Amino acid sequence: MAQEIERKFLVISDTWKNNVSRRIHYRQGYLCGNAHSSIRVRVSDDAAHLNIKSATPGVRREEFEYPVPLHEAQRMLSVLCEGPLIEKTRHFVEHRGHTWEVDVFEGQNQGLVVAEIELSRDDETFERPDWIGEEVSHDLRYYNTSLVRHPYTRW
């Protein structure tokens, strides 16, 4: 069992682009979800995983992740997942001892850019970069499971 402590923010400028250390393109879809959890399949540039995450709103959630064969994950995305799929490029940005993950969404969620920071404790302090705006950790509209049902371009 693993717990994830993650805070999510809107991105208000492009200055983060100057400090990207690496990037990964993701395609992901949801196999199912209910009031307790969601199950997604995610394909990156060269790997695939099944992810099970608790549906608890907020910054702390249960999360389990398992590798799956890439060809099987691609088939799950095309046959089993509710659309539209989540497509995004994740950019990793180091800032004052923390790694920020900046997600630039594509497709039905184009125009949305959010940054996430994973923490080791709920009360861990961190410095916000100047390109970080409003915190949306508790706003369910920004959860990927919600973006499938209510894409950003339709808000």
TrEMBL record:
Pfam families: CYTH (PF01928). The active site is at Y30. Coiled coil: none annotated. Residues 2-149 form the CYTH domain. CDD domains: CYTH-like_CthTTM-like_1 (cd07891). SUPFAM superfamilies: CYTH-like phosphatases (SSF55154). This is Adenylate cyclase. It comes from Thioalkalivibrio denitrificans.
